[in-house]
Amino acid sequence: MQNQMFEKEKFIQEIKDNVKNLYRKTLEEASQQEVYQAVSQAVKEVIIDQWLATQKTMEKEDPKMVYYMSMEFLMGRALGNNLINLTAYKEVKEALEEIGFDLNVIEDEEPDPALGNGGLGRLAACFMESLSTLGYPAYGCGIRYRYGLFRQKIENGFQVEVPDNWLKDGYPFEMRRPEHTFQVKFGGYVRSEGDPSGKTRFIHEGYQTVRAVPYDMPVVGYNNNMVNALIAWDAEPEEYFELDAFDKGDYKKAVEQENLAKNLVEVLYPNDNHIQGKELRLKQQYFFVSASVQRAVARYKKYHTDLHKLPDKVAIQLNDTHPTVAVAELMRILLDEENMEWDEAWTITTRTCAYTNHTIMSEALEKWPIEIFSRLLPRVYQIIEEINRRFILDIEKKFPGDYNKVKKMAIIFDGQVKMAHLAIAAGCSVNGVARLHTEILKNQELHEFYQMFPEKFNNKTNGITQRRFLYHGNPLLAEWVNKYIGNDWVTNLSHLEKLAVYADDEKAQQEFMNIKYQNKLRLAEYIRKHNGIEINPRSIFDVQVKRLHEYKRQLLNILHVMYLYNKIKEHPEMEFYPRTFIFGAKAAAGYRIAKLTIKLINSVADVINNDASIGGKIKVVFIEDYKVSIAEQIFAASDVSEQISTASKEASGTGNMKFMLNGAVTLGTMDGANVEIVEEVGEENAFIFGMSSQEVIDHEQKRDYDPMQIFNNDQDIRQVLMQLINGMYSRNDPELFRPLYNSLLNTQDTQYADTYFILKDFRSYAEVQSRVEKAYRDEKGWAKMAMLNTAHSGKFTSDRTIQQYVDDIWHLDKIKVETPK
Ligand code: GL4
Questions:
Q1: Segment holding 715, helix H or strand E
Q2: What backbone torsions phi and psi does residue 258 show, to the nearest 5 degrees?
Q3: DSSP character for 683?
Q4: What is the CATH number of the domain that holds 237?
Q5: What's the average model confidence in pLDDT over 377-399?
Q6: Which of 100, 427, 595, 698 has the fewest CB atoms within 10 Å distance of its CB?
Q7: Ligand 1 midpoint to CA 320 (Å)
Q8: Residues 474 and 451 in one domain
Q9: Ligand 1 atom with minimal separation from the 462 CA
Q10: How confident is the model at residue 1 (pLDDT cuts 50, 70, 90)?
Q11: Is 358 part of the annotated catalytic residue set?
């Protein structure tokens, strides 16, 4: 072992010491969980030295830094990735082997912190990792939810939600930092009075408070000694009955404050692309945003005196509209606590804040009733009113006499506060997350805002970190890549391009496909263990893993499986390449149609997997509790990547990139980042189907789509739909799937039948699926295609995305951290 940080004998001794000190046990007596804790402590010690060194460098160099504000950080497990980024994975694996432990098994002891729902939260995690790896100073700011996203159990085919108590054994990679506690105020009222200078001052009284206490989690850069922090805020009640002077001794209020603190950080709202509009959610937002902005200002003031220069040292990025109240909070601090004039405060705020839009789904647009907002945050609301008043004057100047524009663009309208409008008015930048998505924002969803502020709009196509999704998730492929082109790709993914010359090389092809096969065996073993289903590792692994949402169209996928099954039953002699359809998805707890889709997938799986007459040609697997850790293994084992959202609906997608990196071929619509994936890999190396986004938008505007016509004219589709309601997949309750049938044909539940054009795209989907089968039969052809997907995936690293945020929006200074002694 040459790695100085992990000198083998010393490291083993440290693990023994940790087990002794933490558990009063010897290594032989310790459980795997205890060994995991002991190893993590040892790793944390190394990280802390680098963390200290990073802090020192930051103090010395005083660089500009970004505060990435997000309600969600889907970090995934830390141990393995920390070891990779410390370049000590192999050494530690060997050291553990020497004392009889398997690092993979130890890694499995770590809870998978699920402080996020899906792509938006995982993106935040990839961004943090890239920021550290590129050497940019950054804080992630979020909430330390007691319960992250629920654990999913499948019982009798139905999703059941189980609380995810991820902190129950203690989380070794966090540090409580009580010295950075801030007070956050809710409720009360605002009084104004003139001060001697004649200026009006606003005084907030009668509020409740909670203490925001940060837990820092280290984010380790790859091989560069750099450690940034993810600040996860916990809420604690005031220690004493130290209420606002006005309310001293109010016992009832003290109890309320205790409850407020407890409830605040209890649980992550389990919705993706959908807002529930609950008051507690707004409390969560203001809680972590207020604490984070206070900390940013306090840190700035520690080293600087002139707050007018805050934008030279601080950038605040709003991860969707969820943290948008940050702009009003910064205004409040500058106005009320720093006594600035409105115009000065506004200039600073707009130069500091920037907004990323992650969706155009209308149910995801955040609008808060004035009543809730003004009651909960009376002073912040006043400030937003004033921002709105001035903004409306600007709108009228830009579009004289056009009251419609005011109606459409105002921040406060119709009794609601519109967070996206606030974010656009107050930010210096508005970006979408894939080229197509940004164009739709400019030309459709946010067109008026684009007319008013064309200079603010820009695109930042999403990316993913190859350190987790290739190096850690697919070690066999990572090593193979190293063998051919060296390991520069770890920090410069465009180097993968050098693999392209081997795409026709038969030996390379065989090796590549053999690695895929090994990864399929690994996944098949997982599925055998967890689902009790035997799958054929030689079959095509056709995979759709992502949140369950109607717009993502898992229903299209499973209807097509039902269709294929009908074909095989009718024509047992027909050629058919064995296929395993793999699904993984969580549905929001209250999303009825989504949950029913999960049940349908499981019911179809039951029927098909147990029909001996089709000779195992099709298997259907639903992977329970899809999360980051299993995702890494799934991408590595996939042949076909299903990215089949209704065009225009998926802002970007990031799973699509993880599949591509691992040599799976995209089967998708021209939506989100699929467009750019196809551009990179070439149309001949992807399977594209369905309507274009423009066609979808046109149908939506004209309202001229009638799925009933398709139902009446297409026998195969009609047969499949009838099987939804004839008990074929729900013998005991033939009506079970009626709501799915209705969603496709009737307008009783939704505004339109088949809102997501499933029937409209069905034929084109079936056709491209049969092309996939043909292509797969051509072994060399497929190997080439798969390899080219990996080779051309360089653009989709989050290192590239972050560099673009830095160049165009944040303008950060890179720092270089010396190796700690
Ligand atoms: C999402 C988008 O749905 C997804 O396409 C995108 O990749 C992701 C990150 O930008 O953001 N928006 C919401 S809301 N949830 C997402 O996953």
A1: helix 715-725
A2: -65, -45
A3: G
A4: 3.40.50.2000
A5: 98
A6: 100
A7: 9
A8: no
A9: 10
A10: very low
A11: yes
Provide the whole-model pTM. 0.98
pLDDT tens digits for range 486-515: 999 999 999 999 999 999 999 999 999 999
Rounded CA-CA distance 72/230 in Å is 11
- Please enumerate in sequence order all residues whose Cβ is within 8 A of that of 610, keeping only pairs 6 or more positions apart, or say none: none
Any catalytic annotation for residue 552?
yes
Cα 741 off chain centre by = 31
Domain count for the chain, please give it. 3
Active site residue 516: no
Q: What is the pLDDT of residues 685-714, one digit of tens each?
A: 999 999 999 999 999 999 999 999 999 999
Residue nearest (by alpha carbon) to ligand 1 atom 14 = 273
Is 283 within a domain?
A: yes
- How far apart are the CA of 564 and the centre of ligand 1, in A? 31
- Kindly state whether residues 294 and 398 are assigned to the same domain: yes
- Phi-psi group of 64: left, alpha or beta (phi > 0 → left; psi -120 to 50 → alpha; rest → beta): beta
Query: H or E stretch including 537?
Result: none
Asked if residue 199 belongs to a domain, the reply is yes
Which of 44, 281, 467, 546 is labelled catalytic? Answer: 546
Residue 137 pLDDT: 98
Q: Active-site residue among 57, 350, 597, 654? A: 654
Q: Is 654 a catalytic residue?
A: yes
| Half-sphere exposure for 669 (CA within 13 Å, toward CB) | 33
Residues 505 and 486 in one domain: yes
Question: Which of ligand 1's atoms lies nearest the C-alpha of 320?
Answer: 14
Both 324 and 447 in a single domain? yes
Q: Say whether both 160 and 276 belong to one domain.
A: yes
Strand residues in 373-439 grouped as ranges (E): 412-413, 416-418, 430-432
Residues 28, 69 within the same domain: no
- Residues 223, 87: contact at Cβ < 8 Å? yes
Q: 404 is in which domain, residue-wise?
A: 63-73+122-460
Ligand 1, pocket-test mutation among 71, 117, 120, 281, most atoms within 8 A of CB: 120
Pairing verdict, β 430-432 and 618-623: unpaired
Q: Ligand 1: distance of its center to the CA of 651 in Å?
A: 6
Residue 120 Cα to ligand 1 middle (Å) = 5
> Do residues 380 and 408 share a domain?
yes
Q: What is the pLDDT of residues 433-456, one digit of tens each?
A: 999 999 999 999 999 999 999 999
Nearest atom in ligand 1 to 121's CA: 17
* Beta-ladder partners of 641: 543, 666
Q: Packing angle between helix 715-725 and helix 554-570, nearest 10 degrees?
A: 110
What pLDDT digit, counting tens, does each position of 300-342 carry?
999 999 999 999 999 999 999 999 999 999 999 999 999 999 9
Residue 415 CA to ligand 1 center (angstroms) comes to 28
Question: Counting atoms of ligand 1 from 1, which one is nearest the CA of 672?
Answer: 5
> Reduced to 3 states, what is the DSSP secondary structure of residue 46?
helix
List, for residues 212-253, the tens digit of each pLDDT value: 999 999 999 999 999 999 999 999 998 755 555 556 667 777
- Tell me: the pLDDT tens digits for 102-141? 999 999 999 999 999 999 999 999 999 999 999 999 999 9
- The one catalytic residue in 547, 579, 784, 800 is 547
Within 6 A (CB) of ligand 1 lie: 118-120, 123, 272-273, 358-359, 364, 433, 462, 650-654, 672
In a domain, 733, yes or no: no
Catalytic site residue from 144, 549, 552, 560: 552
Residue 345 is assigned to a structural domain of this protein: yes
Which residue out of 617, 658, 792, 795 is catalytically annotated?
658
Distance in angstroms (rounded) separating the CA atoms of residues 462 and 454: 21
